[in-house]
Amino acid sequence: MIRRTLVPALAVGAIALLAAACSRADSGDSGDSGDRPPVLEALQGRGLEIVEEFDAGDGLRGFAGVAGQQPVAVYVTASGAAIVGTRVGADGEDLDTQRLQDLVAKPMGERAWARLEASQWVRDGREDAPRVVYAFSDPNCPFCNRFWHAARPWVESGQVQLRHVMVGVIKADSAAKVAAILTAPDPAEAMARNERAYASGGIAPAAEVPAEVRRTLDANESMMMELGFGGTPALVFRDEDGNVQRRSGMPQGDDLSTVMGPR
């Protein structure tokens, strides 16, 4: 027997989506098998993006989707109503987690990784380091500074290359400090100088922010928001299976080793 429950992290949004879907279904507007059910339009109007249909069985049609950078399953019943959330089997195990990983999470992660690779970033560590970690960083961010110092054992041992995607969101002079770093003859050295002198004010801000740096900041800040991050540091890395993972804020406890890998 199968019971259906909502993903806790998406419960509030899912309730709203389910309400919209059911109201659409109650109007008698349901699709034929083989066609995309009209109820999905209601869900998409609420911000859920449908990616692909999958075989759900049990008289249901399953659809893999995305809501707020999170994979979501949608189950459409024979009446045309929709249930948004997680399907759990009689043994208490999620039935479709791996499908969502394959259909949604992995492609999303790879697209995010490609965007980060193509962005402008400051390299911190050996070019041939076996592990790469992207970090959205602000020169005035205290938690970015803590992360920079905490990462030194991995970076200095050659195990990790940090790629700092610079943003200027913390203070009024953040953008000018980013300009000082990005226009320096050696941006990596300027970045390190800022972090080492953080307690005494960090790097001196540039007198002005060049248009090219402003464009880089705008692109980086837009990307940070589009990837679902609301502040710095924001970290993107590959886990031991090669899957793209993300962390918001300074990793705590053993999670730092999860992000950085073996020393």
Protein topology:
Elements: E1 3-5, H1 11-26, H2 39-45, E2 49-55, E3 61-67, E4 70-76, E5 82-88, H3 97-118, E6 122-124, E7 131-137, H4 142-150, H5 152-156, E8 160-166, H6 174-182, H7 187-196, H8 211-226, E9 234-238, E10 244-248, H9 255-260
Parallel strand pairs: 7-8
Antiparallel strand pairs: 1-5, 2-3, 3-4, 4-5, 6-8, 7-9, 9-10
Description:
With 263 residues, the chain is an alpha+beta fold. It has nine helices and ten strands. It has helices at residues 11-26, 39-45, 97-118, 142-150, 152-156, 174-182, 187-196, 211-226, 255-260, and strands spanning 3-5, 49-55, 61-67, 70-76, 82-88, 122-124, 131-137, 160-166, 234-238, 244-248. The strands form two sheets. The chain has a five-stranded antiparallel β-sheet, with helices on both faces. It has a five-stranded mixed β-sheet with strand order 6-8-7-9-10, sandwiched between helices. A hairpin with a 5-residue loop joins strand 4 and strand 5. Helix 1 (11-26) packs antiparallel against helix 2. The longest helix has 22 residues, at 97-118. It is elongated. Mean pLDDT is 85; it is low at 1-33.
List the keywords:
263 residues, alpha+beta, Nuclear Transport Factor 2, Chain: A, Glutaredoxin, 2 domains, five-stranded antiparallel β-sheet, five-stranded mixed β-sheet, elongated
Helix run count: 9
Give the overall shape, derived from the CA principal axes.
Answer: elongated
| Total number of domains | 2
Identify the CATH architecture of the largest domain. 3-Layer(aba) Sandwich
Query: Which strand order do you get reading across the main beta sheet?
Result: 1-5-4-3-2
Gap between N and C termini, in Å? Answer: 46 Å
Q: What's the Cα radius of gyration?
A: 22 Å
- Strand proportion: 15-25%
**For this structure, what is the CATH homologous superfamily of the largest domain?**
Glutaredoxin
Unreliable stretches (pLDDT < 50, length at least 5) are 1-33
Overall number of strands:
10
Indicate the CATH topology of the largest domain: Glutaredoxin
CATH class of the largest domain: Alpha Beta
